[in-house]
Write a structure and sequence with these properties.
Length: 224
């Protein structure tokens, strides 16, 4: 698998993602917000942080960067696009995923480890797991409260686009949504940080299943 991690001014989880991918022997390029051609990559990661200082709203400035035009082309091509935390916020702002991440129901920055329940075991991001499995993954956000209109929420549920739910609703998200895909299943966003849970030395490597699923999905596509 060939991966790109896009670093925006203010990203702060880009190197976490880089090291997580390297731990799976993935060839990773670190690109910046001026990236214009992403056609060489199986998977493109938009990492967490505070892109452009989170001015106006999280992700609201990043969506205008040249790199996001290239991400849209890649998404249309069916390449995998993965946004973690601020990356999820950028993908919703850019219109690549439905809904919006609002300020947490109890306003404030939450830094914790939370249990995520697998909702869809057939996705590119969970295929080594089973529906109902629980993985513990760090969260670190002030704006993780997922909202959308009722019709879109119903559509997300009906199309099995909800991939993970929080076991307990930590931030007020509708239907305890922690991660969703687009309709085609190749664009994915989640607020929790699997890239921070890949090394047993840190006390938690349950995020590895997420990356193992991605690798299996890319491998499967290459054989098809
Ligand atoms: N860790 C992050 O990516 C933080 C995301 C975002 N800036 C928030 O606080 O919600």
């Amino acid at each position: 698998m060939k991966a790109a991690v896009i670093t925006f001014p203010g990203s702060n989880c880009d190197m976490d993602m880089y090291h997580a991918l390297e731990s799976f022997d993935v060839a990773v390029d670190l690109l910046d917000d001026q990236a214009s051609d992403l056609s060489a990559y199986d998977a493109i990661f938009i990492p967490g942080g505070f892109s452009y200082g989170d001015y106006l709203r999280s992700g609201a400035v990043a969506k205008f960067s040249p790199a996001m035009d290239a991400v849209k082309v890649a998404a249309d091509n069916g390449q995998l696009v993965i946004g973690i935390c601020n990356g999820f916020q950028i993908l919703t702002e850019a219109g690549l995923l439905p809904g919006q991440l609002l300020v947490n129901e109890q306003p404030g920055f939450i830094c914790d480890e939370v249990n995520l329940v697998v909702e869809n075991e057939d996705s590119n991001f969970t295929n080594v797991l089973k529906k109902g499995d629980v993985i513990k993954v760090p969260i670190a956000h002030g704006e993780g409260n997922y909202v959308t209109d009722e019709a879109t929420l119903q559509e997300l549920e009906d199309n099995h686009q909800v991939i993970f739910r929080y076991q307990e609703n930590v931030n007020g998200s509708m239907n305890r949504i922690a991660g969703i895909t687009n309709k085609a299943g190749n664009v994915y966003g989640m607020m929790p940080h699997p890239e921070r849970a890949v090394d047993a030395l840190t006390g938690n490597d349950s995020g590895r299943a997420f990356f193992e699923s991605l690798l299996a999905a890319v491998d499967h596509k290459a054989r098809a």
